[in-house]
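ok trying this again, last paste got cut off
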Amino acid sequence: MWVYLSLSINTNNYGAYWYLSNNISTGLCSQLGCGNIVSLSYNTISTNVLQAQCTGRESAVTECNLYFQSGSSWYSTLTCSGNVRLVNGSSECSGRVELLYSSQWVSLYDTGWTTQQSNVVCSQLGCGQAVATGSGETPGSALQALCSGAESALQSCSFQSCSSCAANKSTSVTVVCSGGVRLVNGQHNCTGNAQIFLDGTWMYLYLSFSYYYIYWYSSNSVSARLCSQLGCGNFLSLSYNTIGSTNILEARCTGGESDIRECILYFQRGGTSISTLTCSGSTISATTQPQTTETTAFVKDLEALLNNSNGQVTKVLNDLLSYLWNSTNLSEGKAETFLNFAFGNFYNRSDNVTDNIESANILLEISETIASLLIEPNATYSNKTLKTQYLEIRVTVGSNTSQILPLVANGNEMKMNSSITQNNGSVSATLISYVEMENIMTARYFKKDNGAKMFSSVTEAFLKQIPAMEPINLTEPIIFLLKHNQMKPQDGNVICVYWNDTGMEKFWSELGCTATYTDENYTECSCTHLSIFALILQVDDNETNNDLTMMSKIFEITGLVFFALAIITFALTSQTSKVNNTSRLNLCISLFLAHLLFLTGSDRTENQVICSVIAGSLHFLFLASFAWMFLEAVQLVLLMRNLRKVEVLRKQGLPYGYLLVFGYLFPAIIVAITAGLFPEGYGDQNQCWLKKDKNLRWSFLGPVILILCANYISFLMIIWHLYFVLGLIQQDLSTIKDVRILVLKNCVQFAILGCSWVLGFFPEVKIFAVLFIVINSQQGTFIFLVYCLFNTQVREQYKKWFGCFFHKKITERTDTQTQSLS
């Protein structure tokens, strides 16, 4: 049975109380594998509590004297640091982040580290909230942290080695926390009500000394150390005031503590008295300190304008943008000041969604302009990093790819390509990763599906020629590796998008961006232009997908039955047909095998080799079907040139061998080239088909589009020939009628077999997905109806076959009856 525990130290010397309680608490944290003690506090509960009377020298709590205490009792609340610490800093609440991993303290690479993760570390250590996040040299071993952003402890993240980080000598994360105490509600940050950060929240503090006859103004008192800890100079005064009923933390101190958290802490529910501390000095955070008189004056002017404009953030941001456009350069300090002002006012004062989007676009322009002003036009090589709680900017200048390494900001990476080597002079590359901007520029601005959601942070990238500062046009797609903001679900489809803000309407668009690779944590995007990018996740509707899958199987089986009937019919009537049906027969064979293989093997992804073979076979068979459809159009063109006798195709058309060579060798060559250039391009984790990597789908779509265009041109020629030429020549009416019917059938066949594939380009539109399944799966049904059941000659042949069959049955029955009578 689990019971609450109350730790008590058996000593008459209260001055030794904290030392002994700290010992036993540290031992308990260590026993739990939870690092060092952060704080020990007490709370009341109306239940039985196990009292542990300890001397403070025990190695485990079970060695203390244990007894039950019934009724309302105090129980102990222990906060441990976990297996995380800050080292080499100016205090215990600042320094390089280290994690105890596999019994070894390791640093964490600064790849994708966010302010939210810094807050987790600070909170976990009882050090308040993060005030700054930076990077430093990486000594010894280091890991890459993969966090979703919702963790309450750093250990909840997953960790992995990063060979590229080690090769590039990536820096490690450093964090500066506010500390576990602060002063609020004062005229400046060095006077006010004392608060302590405990269990992830700030609580008012009541400092208790009278019980122990210890005076707060003592030279060794906690108050003096508290002022010093806050960077607020000397201790001046301590007073008490009352507030409305709230939860207050009482700190019972001896006066010899070096940190307020070393006092014994008790919860007071509904307390009213809190402590007010006044220190001599005041501090201004380095992240908000104005860098120049000019910057200070301008920010004050903007603040005044904002206060007088009824919170119209957009106007103030436009004024800031105009100011930046007229600037020629910007120091990192001024840049940070302007960014904090712009983003801080945006998040604090923007309420209306429409206004948010308008202001968000201005913020993006401000960030891009500031990043451009950080570029040194005369530099041949430089690297700059600017990181705030709102964004991270990485700017690098170089003359070749060896100098411009891949840029990484908040876990998002831009990989360099030959675009920067084909320019004269140096090139600057900039990557900006925004924090929480995806909550403003949401997936509702993605037109294709209302069920989509943002799946990454918003990231911006651009290249500029130095010293002209002109944008560089890409000669080939550039690759981005974007970090997911949560684990990718199995049924999710990740889409790479960019922010289209060229018109009146702003929206996310896929144009020019393709997801070439995705796993649980990252997606690689290939984009033909530079802009503002993000990932959008579309989660399939399982119920709808199951219905579509079932419908697809039923329609596929039906289509295969009619394909088989059509193949048998064409094979048996080849000698009596008026026209050469070699192309149509092979078209049906190719489609029959393709649909059969798709039905039975397209989802066999568990074996990569088998899946690749199936994908390659499907690629070949579908290309072969389009090749035979093209050959049938060619034969029809030849027929129009020889209208004197319809049977001429069988006698004077393309030789049978030529037909087979083009019908099967052409797709085989395309598949061989694709497999040779991209041997791993067939089959992925979702389906046995062409992978999306490196746009391999164009090895299928390219030939298909080419054939469809050729067929379209052929049918235009045929129709023109049919209506304008036939009127000028004498021709047998039955021949002309046969030709017209044949042309009509082929036009319909072109629409059903060829144009229906256009619907496959829009799988996210449900009605198109349904139409694609219905039309493509019923290709066999269409061919059987049009070329067999609706064909007079074939119907006559069917009558003969059925007549012979039934005549034979009747004859057999008559013979049987005759034998039985005899």
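PB: full thing came through this time. The chain has 18 helices and 31 strands.
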